[in-house]
Amino acid sequence: MAVIGFIGLGHMGGPMSANLVAAGHVVRGFDLAPAALEAARANGVTVVGSAVEAVTGAEAVITMLPGGKHLLDCYEQVLPAVEPGALLVDSSTVDVADARAAHALAGTAGFGSLDAPVSGGTAGAEAGTLTFMVGGAEEHFQRAEPLLAPMARKVIHCGGPGNGQVTKMCNNLVLGASMIAVGEAFVLGERLGLSNQALYDVASISTGQCWALTTNCPVPGLVETSRADHDYEPGFSAALMLKDLKLAESAAEQSGTDAAIGRLATELYQRFNEEGGGGYDFGAIIRSIRERSAA
Ligand code: NAD
């Protein structure tokens, strides 16, 4: 069993750290928010007073922070206190350039590091069924795999430094675009007199099949696991979807990729966020599509 430093105990990091404790690890956790610390303490996390204290004595350090700036600031702060030989694993979703900058900071300080963003949302974090997409050297991946296992259904090595983030952003480009397409298909069907059930029964076993339809269907009453059946309480919020689409859009621009659907999906989620939808599950965009369709 390992001593693990865990920085960022929010919606994701809270349940992830709890699963590490349940697997028998000693988790030294820190968050800026007192409520997150309280919840972590109740889950058996050894709550400490600073990020530096969290990494002290830890053989692995996991970060689960809001974004790239938080990650780089955190690494600058804690790296001098990280134990020799410790492995750094960042599971936040950040820009590829920031992920690679974090690897460079860790490498210069003499530490192995991985970017290991996740898919599966808060439900996956709670159930310990996240998918980890990992970028970094093979030897570090081998070392991290058993540590990540209690939080994961799958841990996949996607290549060198930053490639975990590349994978995550490409996956979420598909997810954002497919949710909009599924929403448009239901509204179009409704307006032409088709029942949602009939469309679901066919598309869910036909070529329209996708996760946005069969696991997180934006229409309530069709799929038990859908956040639509819980008043679109996230799940994966529209604000986070916009964050990921923007990361994909900026990476597309930087790499000269013609990602037209990605750009449009970003625009539509931007508008949905501006309309006040950011705190709802990203499937709630169907409401905006319905409202904008002519009476
Ligand atoms: P969150 O805002 O609930 O948690 C982030 C936590 O980091 C907060 O509790 C905040 O207080 C803490 N924090 C910020 N700066 C800190 C610092 N310097 N030191 C210590 N703690 C600090 O966000 P979340 O939903 O848990 O998401 C975390 C990351 O996971 C994000 O990068 C997000 O994009 C990604 N992600 C989220 C989901 C999801 O469904 N929520 C799914 C996949 C990936």
Q: Tell me the domain tally.
A: 2
CATH architecture of the largest domain: 3-Layer(aba) Sandwich
Question: Could you tell me the radius of gyration in angstroms?
Answer: 20 Å
Helicity level: 40-55%
CATH superfamily of the largest domain: NAD(P)-binding Rossmann-like Domain
Overall form: globular
Which structural class best describes the helix and strand composition?
Answer: alpha/beta
Calculate the mean pLDDT score and round it: 97
CATH top-level class of the largest domain: Alpha Beta
Whole-Å distance between the termini? Answer: 61 Å
Q: Biggest sheet, open or closed, and with what strands and sense? A: 6 strands, parallel
Give the H and E element order. EHEHEHEHEHEEHEHEHHHHHH
Number of E strands: 9
CATH topology of the largest domain: Rossmann fold
**Beta-strand percent range:** 5-15%
Number of helices: 13
Residue runs with pLDDT of under 50 for 5 or more positions: none
Heteromolecules bound: nicotinamide-adenine-dinucleotide
Attribute tags:
295 residues; 3-stranded mixed β-sheet; N-(1-d-carboxylethyl)-l-norvaline Dehydrogenase, domain 2; NAD(P)-bd_dom_sf; alpha/beta; binds nicotinamide-adenine-dinucleotide; EC 1.1.1.31; HIBADH-related; oxidoreductase; 2 domains; 13 helices; Rossmann fold
Question: How would you explain this protein's 3D organization?
Answer:
It is built from 13 helices and nine strands. With 295 residues, it is α/β, with parallel strands linked by helices. It folds into two domains: 3-159, Rossmann fold; 166-292, Orthogonal Bundle (N-(1-d-carboxylethyl)-l-norvaline Dehydrogenase, domain 2). The longest helix is centred in the middle third of the chain and has 29 residues, at 163-191. The model has no long low-confidence stretch (mean pLDDT 97). Nicotinamide-adenine-dinucleotide (NAD) binds at residues 7-13, 30-33, 36, 51, 64-67, 70, 74, 92-93, 118, 121-122, 236, 240, 243.
